Amino acid sequence: MNIPVTSVEGKKLATDFLATPRKHLINGKWVASQSGKTFPVYNPADGQVIAQAAEGDKADIDLAVAAARAAFERGPWPKMTPSQRAKLLWKLADAIDAHADELALLETLDNGKPLKLARMADIPGSAEKFRYNAGWATKLNGETMSANKPGDWHMYTLREPVGVVGLIVPWNFPLMMAANKMAPALAAGCTVILKPAEQTPLTALRLGELIQEVGFPEGVVNIVTGFGETAGAALSEHPGVDKISFTGSTEVGKLILKAATGNLKRVTLELGGKSPIIIFPDADLDRAIPAAANGIFFNSGQVCAASSRLYAHKDVFDKLVEGVAKHAEKLKVGPGTEPDTDFGPLVSQEQIERVTGYLKAGADAGARVVTGGKRLDREGYFVQPTVFADTSHDMSIVREEIFGPVLSASSFSDDDLEQISAKANDTTYGLSAYLWTQNLGIAHKMAKKLKAGTVCVNTFGLDLAVPFGGYKQSGWGRENAREGVETYTEIKSVIVGL
Ligand code: NAP
Ligand code: MG
Fold it and tell me: Which domain does 248 fall in, by range?
């Protein structure tokens, strides 16, 4: 196996880790599936098998839920103070940083992304999720209320952990998505069962080892690998689970919702997107062009908040599209383990079929291919970063989430913000929207009109301190910020007649 570019220690650890068949973490122990089944884990850069993971199903989920329940009700976890929980989360963040080389390499081999991206974004970003949420553990409080009725009363709320939580995550940012849910859930005092995506279970499992090393009590974090249709479905319909937090496709989000009705478990859904980027004629194009390119080509376009629909004013349209295409052509495409790679393969055979299907659909529908448009003729799941121009709203490449490096660009000529926002809002999704203008009035007026959970002006980026989530079919609820941790709590009202 080809494992270059990282510290010798990180390389050795990752190699040892891959050589051992992986198991589930249940009640503080690494255990094989009840069925004894395993499944192969692939490297998207060459399609080769790099590891074996345990294939969990309902029987394993049952054990993990029982462990999480016991840990939630009894044992050291519910007795720990918020500050003790915060300390553990902080220690875990430090452990992630200390093992960053190894985790980055595992992520690259498993997901395909450039090692420099994993090392600079995914791994430190995951550590930061634990650090940020450690701070919330000591700040989750109820309130006191003044009575609305006559008499002497003492009325207040308690904010309590929601209980046992199932976390189901996708493959695009495997460790970061796991951390994004696990950190606030643990900060709130919940216990969890994590189900990583079948394509990318490795860093979650290594995280499980670090969780043990830093001293989380057994059963607080359980990790069951396997497939969505079996392990994921068993978790989402389990009567012993109080909440599911899911990130993935809108289609599966709806299945989760149905499965959750049995015990009316709480549900947070972070789903797909088809986010617009709108460029006004006064935009600073030197910044807008690379931002528009990164917005769709970052992580090979496998980003829920990708800016996949470009709307540029006719006066700047040609310059913009040409600039984005030039940026695409300069990206060094290759295996993530090569040091100069900017743009790695897609995650799987399934994903390359999906994306190439859209490339054909776009061309067949008459969209103009400005750059890219093809799968690369080499081993692995590589596709060219692609720009389609002269697209219209009846094309599937404009309406549907591709989840790949495919931009659809069209121009607008009017100055009516109502018309422009109507076009941007003409989608079943509502995750993010991006605006480029130097005009403050336009920026704030548009920010109000756009139906999206996050509106970025003159930037492409998120921050842990602001809530993230979707309008419409992009989801239910918010992650990050205070909202993100409060979603793992229940409010209890206490009314005392004095
Ligand atoms: P997916 O098929 O929905 O899978 C996501 C997770 O759900 C995986 O762990 C999957 O397991 C599991 N799953 C599948 N079927 C299930 C079922 N019936 N019951 C319970 N769990 C089930 O999505 P994906 O193809 O992996 O990821 C791409 C999608 O995720 C895109 O649509 C993207 O927009 C969305 N996404 C959204 C965000 C966000 O924050 N809004 C972030 C990242 C990705 P297996 O993989 O093991 O089958
Ligand atoms: Mg899947």
Answer: 8-271+474-494
Measuring from each residue's beta carbon to the nearest atom of ligand 1, which residues come in under 6 Å?
A: 168-172, 195, 197-199, 227-229, 232-233, 236, 247-249, 252, 255-256, 270-273, 304, 401, 403, 431, 475
DSSP character at residue 375: B
pTM for this prediction: 0.97
Tell me the per-residue pLDDT of 249-277, one tens digit each, with 9 for 90 and over: 999 999 999 999 999 999 999 999 999 99
| C-alpha 282 chain-centroid distance | 33
pLDDT value for 4 = 52
- Are residues 246 and 278 in contact, defined by beta-carbon separation less than 8 angstroms? no
Proximal ligand: closest to the CA of 484: 1
Please indicate, yes or no, whether residues 14 and 108 belong to a single structural domain of this protein: yes
Q: CA 431: distance to chain centroid?
A: 12
Q: How far is 92 from 219, CA to CA, in rounded Å?
A: 16
Q: Are residues 408 and 487 in the same domain?
A: no
Q: Does 469 fall in a domain?
A: no
Cβ neighbours around 489 below 10 Å, total:
23
CATH number of the domain that 100 lies in?
3.40.605.10
Sites in the chain below the pLDDT cut of 50: 1-2
Question: 363 and 240, same structural domain?
Answer: no
